[in-house]
Fold ABC transporter ATP-binding protein.
Amino acid sequence: MLKIEDLHVEVEGKEVLHGVSLHIREGETHVLMGPNGSGKTTLLRTIMGFSGYKVTKGKIIFKGRDVTNIPLHERARYGMGIMFQRPPTISGLKLGKLLYATSGSTNENIDKYAAQMKMSGFLQRDVNAGFSGGEIKRSEVLQLMIQQPDFVMLDEPESGVDLENISLIGHSIARLVEKDRHIINRHKSGLVITHTGYILDYIEADAGHMLCDGEIKCHGNPREILKVIQEKGYQECIRCQKI
């Protein structure tokens, strides 16, 4: 699904990622952890193709295509989707209009998914305008449900969300990355940034990675990595990797 090979990325002239390599197979969901400022969000935004993230070395291969220099909208067309940690407010654009334009779905489908995410009353409101933290996250998940990407990236989906919303969001994210039972051999994949690990209660994570100072320092079982981080901090992961 995704191969990142020796990726070096600059932001405003400063190198933030230093030789990141990551392989995610079809049907796998990987979890990315790391301290603030380690480059996690930079990695996701670079994979998605946002401007301001300059790849100086390395490649991003998505479903067999080299997309390193392909614009964001083409990557979305190929099947990439992203959930932001702090998405922008878009004044003048109604959520329902955005959903329809993104997918070309019928209003019936949009209404069905909006009801599932408890967002029916938000379709005629400007995107994220006056939304609470939980409402913003539900809106982001709703957009991905409509888009139905083959590969979904989630930047701290549980951040700023109460327990009631995390259950709804967690179960919905699990459906986003599960195998599509109606299409033979079609598996969806994901890459999830988490600090708290709450999302691991809802998704089946196949692998975990710890990113620090722009480099992936270790790979392994995501729950084991998270346990070490919670008990001993990120430095213990780095020390262990060096032994």
